[in-house]
Give the backbone structure.
Amino acid sequence: MAPEKASVTVTLELEAGNASLMILGKMLGPTGVPPFEVKRRYDTATADRRGEIIPAVITVDARKRWTMRLETPPTASLIRAVLGKPGSPQARHKPVGAISRDDLRRIAVRKLPDLNTDDVAAAMNIVAGTARSMGVRVEE
C-alpha cells in the first residue's frame, strides 16, 4: 500500500456572506475541491457578519475530502472599522488618527482565539503594534 499524501491547506480572506467565486476557483482549482460547495458553506456560515473580511482555512486530504475553519477578521481590518478610514501610507511620518484603550481592548478580546496568547494585556500589545504600523495612535 502506498503512503498517503500529506494534506493541503489553503487560507483565503473572503468577504463574509459574499465569497468571490473567482477567487475560490483560482485558489481551490488545483486541490480538486468544488468551489461552489465551499462558497455555499462559507456564505451560510458568515451571513450574519456581512461587510467583514473573514479568513477561511480549507484543509484538503489526499482523498479530496475537505474541512473549513473560520478565523477572526484580520487585526488591521478591525482597526480600520473602528477608525473609519484606512491606515497611513507612511505610518511614522503621517499618523491618520487614534483609537481608545476601550476600542483596543474590544479588538484584542475578539482576536484572542487566533493569537498566540491567552492574556488580554498581551493581546492588547499585539493589536497596539499593528495599530502603530498603520499610523494609528492608541489614546490613554
Q: What stands out?
A: The chain has a mean pLDDT of 89.
